Amino acid sequence: MVRKKRTDVPSAGGESSQSHDTGVGSGQGPQPPQQRGGYSGGRGWVPQSQQAGWGGDSGVGGRGRGMSRQQYAGGSPEFQGRGRGGPIQQGSRGGYGSGRGGGARGGGPLPGGPSRPPNPELHQATQPFQAAVTPQPAPSEAGSSFRPLEHAPLAEQLQQLSIQQEVGQAIQPVPPSSKSVRFPLRPGKGCTGTKCIVKANHFFAELPDKDLHQYDVTITPEVASRGVNRAVMQQLVKLYQESHLGKRLPAYDGRKSLYTAGPLPFVSKEFKITLIDDDDGSGMQRREREFKVVIKLAARADLHHLGLFLQGKQADAPQEALQVLDIVLRELPTTRYCPVGRSFYSPDLGRRQPLGEGLESWRGFYQSIRPTQMGLSLNIDMSSTAFIEPLPVIDFVTQLLNRDVSSRPLSDADRVKIKKALRGVKVEVTHRGNMRRKYRISGLTSQATRELTFPVDERGTMKSVVEYFSETYGFIIQHTQWPCLQVGNQQRPNYLPMEVCKIVEGQRYSKRLNERQITALLKVTCQRPQEREFDIMKTVQHNAYHKDRYAKEFGIKISETLASVEARILPAPWLKYHDTGREKDCLPQVGQWNMMNKKMVNGGTVNNWICINFSRQVQDTVAQGFCYELAKMCYISGMAFTPEPVLPPISSRPEQVEKVLKTRYHDAMTKLQAKNKDLDLLIVILPDNNGSLYGDLKRICETDLGIVSQCCLTKHVFRMNKQYLANVALKINVKVGGRNTVLVDAISRRIPLVSDRPTIIFGADVTHPHPGEDSSPSIAAVVASQDWPEITKYAGLVCAQAHRQELIQDLFKTWQDPVRGTVSGGMIKELLISFRRATGQKPQRIIFYRDGVSEGQFYQVLLYELDAIRKACASLEPNYQPPVTFVVVQKRHHTRLFANNHNDRHSVDRSGNILPGTVVDSKICHPTEFDFYLCSHAGIQGTSRPAHYHVLWDENKFTADALQSLTNNLCYTYARCTRSVSIVPPAYYAHLAAFRARFYMEPETSDSGSMTSGTAAGRGGMGGGAGARSTRGPSASAAVRPLPALKENVKRVMFYC
Question: Which residues does the UniProt record annotate as the domain Piwi (predicted)?
Fold first, then answer.
């Protein structure tokens, strides 16, 4: 279940703007005097004699001094500048030596290290242990029979990890397998904030007390289509329900499983079923297909344990029982509508809307059964997706190419576009009267229709397609210059002229939509809360679950009212601004505030800057005026910003981007180096539609020249709106190392479990390529706070990894160096060192916000990534294991919250949504685990989607209030706007960083013209990658090309903003 990562259009307003990426962006740029201490020198964490991982000469230091990836192995100093290290060993899962002496893979003795490599520990606690995790007996000293971990199952890998015992502490050992992992129990409910009632799109489902049976189904000959399987089973039920099935109405998953409410009158039985094809109007005899169906008792689904789980008396959710109920409730809508994933679509569920280029949107609904505190609940939400319009193929192609196609012949690019859009699409023929045979398109012919011939008999007599259609059907082909559609297989291709084909209705379009189509689809899906709630209610009534014969058969009763849920509105935090401004601090109102009368708490310095203009519409004088206004706004906002550029603005054409950037940078540096100065900023004016220009520019600036840049679109240059300039100033400030604002509570050290000791907050995310891009790598990004106690500056690193791999491969890794032996590095280690350099302290607590993990991957991600965090810490210093809290952040869910009374002005924001700070941790949340929904932002348009936070590991013993308030307060520290944002900023920054790194891959233009790359593990600043293993089969294990390295001075700032 690897989810498609969101690369959706950023929501409007505060959370918009172009996107971003990579490198250790920890520290400050030129520091204004009022800023907190900069990077400390190399004070090691351990006595100088054994100093290894922390201090010394490496890390994010002065410009050009690289962050070393070298490792502490066997107690000798290993940090020497920025070495790239040797290749990482194959199989990057596990098998690492520990920091206390390293370890060759498989456990051979190492010079200066013990013969049995003591592995870093995975245990929950350095405080009294977490009740939610069942203590496991410590494994015995089994290290001598240690196998290389990458060949051992995950459970065994974890069992092999030794258990660290600290004096007087009950340390939680590593669970030996995912089965024995217990996510933390809810530490009680929160009580901070103003209590209120909200409604949720969850409908209570009464747990049936039926005796559920599961049967295995084997259909021969086997067919891939669920539709055919269902047709076979439908026929079987029709014929034999009364006689052989004991009057039971089974629910079928379309594959191998059948479920009944009570036993069938046999243990195993064979049936013969005949399917007759639909009448295609030809008047010819219809094809009959024989199937053998064997139904065999497999198991009894246990609803009793589901009941215990819902009451909190059992820890594991009985997935099978939930699955049965889901299948039962999907049975009826599957026959009525077009199922897509967990959603159902139909042209009857709302108006179809054209999306352009031959696509249209269909309305539908999402439906899923979920275990919650109130018992079972059916989550129902509205949804829309793209379908191919059922047009004649000629009309489809006309729309696709957006021109009159008969006027000029098709170019190669046109052919590629048509082929890509139509491959796999089902069409029916229209030239044979009522006979509507259906075919699936496999490709286009390379020749025009008039040139195509095919053999008509054994002797190889050839006939042209044009002649054949004229003689056989009396059909005169008009567009003979066009290619034909190829249908059937490649060995025996059939040729069909486009003009005799029509697209069959009800085919979902699963490829990537373009910007215009996304905008059109968003318009359709964007509904005010009140409308959405009304449509959800209408859907539930329309689905009439009380009349659903399958629900009746299985005894499932669904409530028809939205769940009323207790919620609380957390207060907004006070924000600190600079003391020289008129307003020194500020209390946001309804999730927003502005910069009027305020100055940035740490204004950055821009002494030397230049401007390049790529827009033909913008004259040099306009560019000059715009830059002057922007510089003035930066100065007013609290930055030290020189009003005059180093060189006057220059205009250039987009195709000259590389040449002009390098020339202008060189000219500016020549002028500055004489005075021993650096270039601080590049301002760029872009055309409104700039294609790949933005990405090329960011790649060249950040991985080649080593300069931060601020791009501005032409339309904004002409408008010169004050609000826009103020927002751009916020972005520029953090790119040059400043801070915009900090939490008052952070400065006065009042944040529970953060302010009391040095704490580092990580954000991590993986973005996957769009559907249809089969070879592009996935990109992982990790950011980490670099200031304490303020926690507002985040350094970032990125790496490319195997296609659609969700586990972050580069968190910790070891490789063999010919001189130093086993050395280690990775993103976590690098960011810990950079925190140490920036603050002069080592983190004594780690909070890790992980974005974009679906429920099915919780165990996998936790076991793999927590292990990597442990190993990274242990590689820096023996026994260094700061307590970790690991929280998954989810936005891709379907829970929506509505105000109890839409007309009560005090309970909604201006968009009609629930108020920012609304938190829910009861009723619709998990029966026993520590999770909550938090709507931290004010809505702009549509219905707000609350973020869902689920704690998978917690050694810091957060109370519900402490974690909910910290998360909500952090949402007010997002650097790019004066609004609270919808997900916690470290997770948001990781998403921006991963998105930015897509631009760093060398574009190999695919036939869609989109960026793909058969590239990449490794990342800006790290050595070559070996095959990171994917959860997606063998093809993904090909080595991925590393991303180009970020320049050191770029790494140190929030360049991805």
Answer: 681-1002
Whether the bond into 789 is cis, omega within 30 of 0: yes
* Residue type at position 602: N
What 8-state DSSP symbol labels residue 265? S
Q: What architecture does CATH give domain 603-738? A: 3-Layer(aba) Sandwich (3.40)
Write out pLDDT tens, residues 895-904.
Answer: 999 999 999 9
Query: Which residue matches tokens 């009267």?
Result: 433
Is the Cβ–Cβ distance between 799 and 868 less than 8 Å? no
What are the backbone dihedrals phi and psi of residue 999, each rounded to the nearest 5 degrees, phi first? -75, -15
> Which of the pair, 451 or 171, is modelled with greater confidence?
451
- Integer CA distances (angstroms), 704 to 26, 573, 707, 1044, in order: 19, 40, 9, 9
Mean pLDDT of 405-427: 88
Scan for tokens 């039971």, then name that residue. Answer: 248
**C-alpha to C-alpha distance for 1011 and 947, rounded to whole angstroms:** 30
Rg, C-alpha atoms of the chain: 31
Ranges for all domains in the chain classified under CATH 3.40.50.2300: 603-738
As a whole number of Å, the end-to-end CA separation of the chain is: 31
Query: What is the b/e burial string over 891-901, where b = at least 16 CB atoms within 10 angstroms of the residue's CB?
Result: bebbbbbbbbe
Paired sense of beta strands 681-686 and 650-651, if any: unpaired
Instruction: Look up the pTM and report it.
Output: 0.82
CATH of the domain spanning 391-504: 2.170.260.10
Does domain 749-891+950-1002 fall into CATH 4.10.400.10? no
Residue with tokens 């053999």: 455
106 neighbors 146 (Cβ within 8 angstroms): yes
pLDDT value at 2 more than 50: no
Of 87, 40, 83, 85, the C-alpha closest to 65 is 83
pLDDT attached to residue 3: 43
DSSP assignment letter at 651: E
